[in-house]
Prior knowledge:
Domain Major facilitator superfamily (MFS) profile: 1-124
Organism: Eutreptiella gymnastica
CATH class: Mainly Alpha
Number of domains: 1
Order of helices and strands: HHHHHH
Mean pLDDT: 84
Keywords: Membrane, Transmembrane, Transmembrane helix
Main location: membrane
Membrane topology: Multi-pass membrane protein
Helix content: over 70%
CATH superfamily: MFS general substrate transporter like domains
Radius of gyration: 19 Å
Distance between the termini: 30 Å
Number of strands: 0
Amino acid sequence: RRMIAGTYALSGALILVTGAMFVRNVLTAFTQTLLWSLTFFVASPAASAAYLTVSEIFPMEMRAQAIAFFYAVGTAIGGLLAPVLFGALVATASRVNVMWGYVLGATLMVAAAAVEWVLGVDAERRSLEDVAPPLGQAATEWTVG
């Protein structure tokens, strides 16, 4: 939970720094690519860990469906809306307008960090059954206890 929230928040901060430097026109192609690479280097483990977290927090009988659902929603939002929105911002040829795209991306990353911090589950060094007991086990414990 802490690693995911921290890397998402740091990614959001890096996006804002990159956007601010972009709008001030102080980046070269090399330095902009370097900042993007650094941002993706930090964001990639966050996204990977968040994907794995979905498989940890749902009971075994629901894990595949949960992963498929969250993957489909994420792909629909990120894969369909983002290119249209950011393409429109780039088409304006205005650095300020493109900066708003950076702000949106950073806001989403920081919001994801906050959600993970508040709702995330500390699953380190715990078995999957301990984090999310199978549905059959939970029903048995409920009726017996």
